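Example record used in the benchmark description.
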Amino acid sequence: MKIGIIGAMEEEVILLKSKMTVTKEWTEAKADFIEGTLDGIEVVLVRSGIGKVNAAITTTLLLAKHDIDLVINTGSAGGIGQGLKIGDVVVSSEMAYHDVDATVFGYVIGQVPQMPARYVADAAIVEKVIEAAKKASLTPVKGLIVTSDSFIAGKEATTKIMKNFPDVLAAEMEGAAIAQVCHQFDVPFVIVRAMSDTADEEAGVTFDEFIIEAGKKSALMVMELIHDLA
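Model output (structure tokens):
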């Protein structure tokens, strides 16, 4: 098995890199690629950069040039679901865009034309991530995570998202793009996120304060999952 792991920011990949046996490093399309092993499993770890286009470029390079069996996206997100707090962890059962609107052509909110309305994560891997999170002394929840090119901060934005996606748990800026590319390549995926903020008016401040801790928690889930797969 060969696993591709994508994080948008340095804070989201640094712990994973420190635990790898690295055999090769390079930069391509301004993304940082690190190849090696983690717990004996072949891994290509990538720092993609922030946003949907960066995530899609990186995922495409990863899947087109490497024989990847599973893609894991690790990182942080803003908690929107009721009861979610900073530090809580969410595992994607499915992903959707919340900034796509082609409803005039009969599609649902969030649906890119000719694409699924939601991208479903690999159910077996989701359950393995849930178990891995528990082993890492985390309390995970699974559900819908939504993606856009906006950092969500404030009641107006979260209210709009929840109106269109009542079952949403978290919002971030890469996951659905990664999921769409995986869908196109027929490669299973899972998105793993720790809450760095609660998408309120103070989100920018709390994000800066908690991003390192959120990155660590998400990485811990990934490391425990890979240990279980080894």
